[in-house]
Specification:
Structural class: mainly alpha
Strand order of the largest sheet: 1-2
Number of helices: 11
Largest sheet: 2 strands, antiparallel
Number of strands: 2
Shape: elongated
Helix content: over 70%
Distance between the termini: 86 Å
Length: 245
């Protein structure tokens, strides 16, 4: 009788211990899963605006690079009709919207200006991301490679920072629209701060900077893929095939 009772007690205690341990590890597992999801959401919320800006710049520059190599009818349509950046301020609204050569240059500048803002914003937000130390250093280095690729072509680092700041409208807490950007460029004193960027895209549009554009595309591609794979667990840019016109 005593043996039977003892065996029952041991069985009960063992079952209780197993249940407690199982519940403990299940709780720990759920907590870790929740933490991973929270980190993923946090990283996504911070990195997604930069990812979108990079994606637009990647496809636009890739398109310009392709056109400069093929030199076809489409290239001729989009080829810049201006030789000096000061001419931009005298253009009418149709040139910024319906004229393919005007639209393509200025919209490219707009996309890149938005990218400069997002890069500068991400630099300030890196401490809030849930990253390993090596990833922390890696994303900063990759962002530098992107900005440096533009700097080597005359869009200097501090000018990029200035352009990025100018793109943000603090009172409305949003980036400048394309229309507002075009209106700004029509004011010569304000346009001057964007002249380096416009000059860069005039050269790109004329097919004069193929090697440099390829370097910029490669730098953007590396940063974009790092964000997609390391932060968002998504699909690399080259596999998405969603060009922006």
């Amino acid at each position: 009788m005593l043996t039977t009772t003892l065996a029952a007690v041991i069985s009960l205690v063992t079952s209780l211990i197993v249940t407690i341990i199982t519940q403990y590890w299940n709780t720990k597992f759920k907590q870790k899963e929740q933490e991973r999801e929270e980190r993923k959401k946090l990283n996504f919320s911070y990195s997604n605006p930069l990812r979108f800006a990079l994606e637009r710049a990647y496809f636009r520059l890739s398109k310009l690079l392709k056109l400069s190599k093929e030199r076809n009818a489409e290239f001729k349509k989009k080829m810049p009709t201006i030789s000096n950046v000061s001419e931009v301020s005298s253009k009418d609204e149709e040139w910024f919207t319906f004229d393919e050569s005007g639209y393509y240059i200025i919209s490219s500048c707009y996309m890149t200006a938005c990218l400069f803002y997002q890069i500068e914003k991400m630099r300030s937000e890196v401490p809030y991301l849930s990253l390993d130390k090596k990833d922390d250093a890696r994303i900063i280095a990759l962002m530098y490679e992107v900005t440096h690729s533009f700097a080597t072509e005359g869009v200097y680092h501090v000018v990029q920072d200035s352009i990025g700041i100018d793109m943000y409208m603090p009172e409305e807490k949003r980036l400048m629209s394309y229309r507002e950007f075009c209106q700004l460029l029509k004011v010569p004193d304000k346009r001057k701060w964007f002249d380096q960027l416009i000059s860069f895209y005039i050269g790109v549009g004329l097919g004069e900077k193929s090697k440099q554009v390829q370097q910029t595309v490669d730098a953007i591609d590396q940063l974009l893929n790092f964000i997609e794979i390391s932060l968002n667990k998504g699909t690399p840019a080259k596999e998405r095939q969603r060009p922006f016109k």
